[in-house]
Design goal:
With 94 residues, the chain is an alpha+beta fold. Helices cover 22% and strands 44% of the residues.
Length: 94
């Protein structure tokens, strides 16, 4: 399960921005940090939203049918759509 100190979560919320582009019924959200640098993106494919780091590596996905987010290894990450958190966490490791 994903845990992030409150200070880090507040910093995360305050410093990212999300831009959405819709191409062929597929919504792609680009996530940038406070300096407008790309840290990753999510792709909404209907009932599943995939999360990718800035290099395109799969970091996990959200399954809307059971409202659960999983990491890239298929391990349960948390309840609800936490794909932005997966991208943020992956960006901290790069």
């Amino acid at each position: 399960m994903w845990e992030l100190p409150v200070e880090s979560l507040c910093h995360f919320i305050a410093t990212i921005s999300i831009t959405t582009k819709i191409i062929n019924n597929m919504s792609t959200k680009y996530i940038t940090d406070g300096n407008n640098r790309n840290i990753g993106y999510t792709k909404d494919m209907g009932s599943v939203t995939y999360a990718h780091d800035k290099n395109g590596k799969d970091v996990g996905y959200y399954n809307a049918s059971n409202k659960t987010t999983f990491d890239s290894k298929g391990k349960r990450y948390g309840t609800g759509n936490l794909t932005n958190a997966l991208v943020f966490e992956a960006g901290r490791k790069i």
